[in-house]
Design a protein that fits this description.
With 516 residues, the protein is of the alpha/beta class. It is built from 15 helices and 17 strands. The chain has an 8-stranded mixed β-sheet, with helices on one face. Strands 12-13-14-15 form a 4-stranded antiparallel β-sheet, with helices on one face. Strand 14 and strand 15 form a beta hairpin.
């Protein structure tokens, strides 16, 4: 391989880990990702570290657990002392470019209260990235492009995802079958890809590092034609859930609170007038169908990017990583979104294509060992021959890309969630706990999943026999020892994985000693 490699880190927002056709999903249509998987390594049990978007991206880009970076909510500042993948890549001479967003809230210390950086949670960019196309929540550059093409969008981003007016919906389709006002070739997904491919045109012989972020399949669940019609709702499986929302909510106070919160229109799916908890079967199936259509739209644009790299001779000198920030519950347990403890919110895709000859033996491999979002940063730095900072909580996946399995590899994953609301205090009030108590951590292995809350009852699921996490065993006397064992393992994890930046240093006779 040439000495001028490229790095392409693609992150699709809210892409659930099982929604890949090559993995057997009956509705997901991902031929381009499937083709890449045949030439890459796929990690089938890959988990994110936290939700929602800002915290999960912070873990991805810093390689840290939530308990260490502490940017737990969208809008929670990220301490400027933390390094990240972009800052580290600069040490190898790269100017990491961002296409999309990182949902980073800057450290407010030293900023004036009137600084625009403190007005919107997702306007910030992770330090170290240049921004050829920053597309935060307002999506101004894309919306401006649509207006220039003749679209009437007086409210800007607030209007862009409104359903097409006067559209005649067939009786066998739900509300979310109604398409967008813009065409598929003019969507945010296409616009971002177009701009990225333009940027690449003058970089055929220059080493580059790009972090490319698809907004989709993130809600609102509205798709341009023909993606609104890609999957018929009758062909979609109905989500697994209890007989009623009330019964479902008995599993845990947080689940009950989350279900009640979702009853308000547009809470999850903007411009959707319905109550998503009380929605009928057709509407639920249609929403899931539209979600799969949005995945198909992302897959098409992913294919354009890969084909461009092949056409320009860059494919075999580019490390390609495709992943997501978090998953999507898709109506299971009467919920939508990602802010809940179920696997569907944390299980993510991860496909890595290493172009080097030493990776040839592993092409098409599917790794069943557990991997985590925090492994991505050390993997990229290891691939570049850079030192992995002590602050990284993850481990390099490079051995898997060579067809190996590292000895002593982890047999469980750990993830966390901070569900406080410092402004409204709604969860605090509803659950009767303080903001600092609005948190849980989970350990999940092949057999069980244990979820420990700071001030609420724990959860225990027999994942092997109850993969949909319907029965909480935490209060079953027959499982008391199991729950205690997993609580001990979680404590071991917390004790050994706390921040350790300076812990292997010693100052004394002979000067500073550092244990690598």
């Amino acid at each position: 391989m040439t000495e001028r490699p490229n790095i392409l880190l693609i992150c699709a927002d809210q892409w659930r880990g099982d929604c890949i056709s090559a993995l057997g999903h009956q509705n997901a249509r991902t031929p381009n990702l499937d083709a890449l998987m045949a030439d890459a390594v796929t990690f089938t049990r890959h988990f994110g570290q936290c939700t929602p978007c800002g915290p999960s991206r912070t873990s991805l880009l810093t390689g840290q657990y939530l308990m260490n970076h502490r940017s737990g909510r969208n809008g929670t500042p990220l301490d400027r002392r933390h390094t990240n993948i972009a800052l580290e890549a600069r040490k190898a001479g790269y100017d990491p470019a961002l296409f999309g967003y990182t949902d980073t809230t800057p450290d407010p210390r030293g900023l004036h209260p009137n600084d625009p950086a403190l007005v919107a949670y997702d306007e910030g960019v992770m330090p170290g990235f240049s921004t050829p196309l920053h597309l935060p929540e307002d999506m101004d550059q894309w919306v401006s492009d649509l207006i220039a093409k003749g679209y009437d969008l007086p409210g800007g981003r607030a209007d862009v995802f409104r359903p097409r007016p006067d559209f005649e919906k067939p009786a066998d389709r739900g509300f979310r079958y109604i398409p967008t006002v813009f065409k598929a070739e003019e969507s945010e997904t296409a616009f971002l890809t177009d701009e990225f491919l333009k940027w690449l045109l003058v970089r055929r012989d220059k080493p580059w590092f790009a972090h490319f972020v698809f907004y989709r399949p993130h809600p609102p669940l509205i798709a341009p034609e023909p993606y609104n019609d890609m999957v018929h709702p009758a062909d979609v499986e109905f989500p697994i859930r209890a007989a009623s929302p009330t019964e479902e909510g008995t599993q845990h106070p947080l689940l009950d609170y989350a279900i009640e919160t979702l009853r308000q229109p547009s809470t999850y799916d903007e411009h959707n007038p319905g109550d998503l908890v009380a929605a009928d079967e057709l509407e639920i199936r249609q929403m899931r169908a539209t979600y799969y259509g949005l995945i198909a739209e992302v897959d098409l644009q992913l294919g354009r990017i890969v084909q461009h790299l092949k056409d320009t001779g860059q494919y075999d000198r580019t490390l390609i990583i495709v992943t997501s920030d978090h998953g999507e519950v898709l109506g299971e347990h009467y919920l939508w979104g990602k802010e809940i403890y179920f696997d569907a919110a944390f299980h993510l895709p991860l496909v890595i294509r290493d172009p080097r000859p030493e990776a040839d033996a592993a092409r098409g491999r599917r790794v069943e060992e557990f991997s985590q979002a925090i492994d991505v940063m050390p993997t990229v730095l290891d691939w570049l021959g850079l030192d992995i900072p002590r602050s990284c909580d993850g481990a390099s996946l490079i051995p898997f890309l060579r067809g190996e399995t590292p000895p002593g590899w982890r047999n469980a994953v750990y993830f966390e969630h901070d569900f406080r609301d410092v402004r409204t205090q709604k969860p605090e009030t509803a659950l009767g706990i303080a903001s600092d108590q609005c948190t849980y951590a989970a350990i999940r292995d092949d057999r069980f999943k244990y979820v420990h809350f700071a001030a609420l009852p724990p959860l225990l699921f027999d994942i092997a026999n109850d993969p949909h996490e319907q029965v909480n065993l935490a209060n079953d006397p027959a499982y008391t020892e199991v729950a205690l064992d997993y609580a001990r393992r979680m404590l071991d994890w917390r004790l050994s994985s706390g921040e350790r930046e300076l812990t292997n240093m010693s100052v004394g006779v002979g000067g500073l000693f550092v244990r690598k």
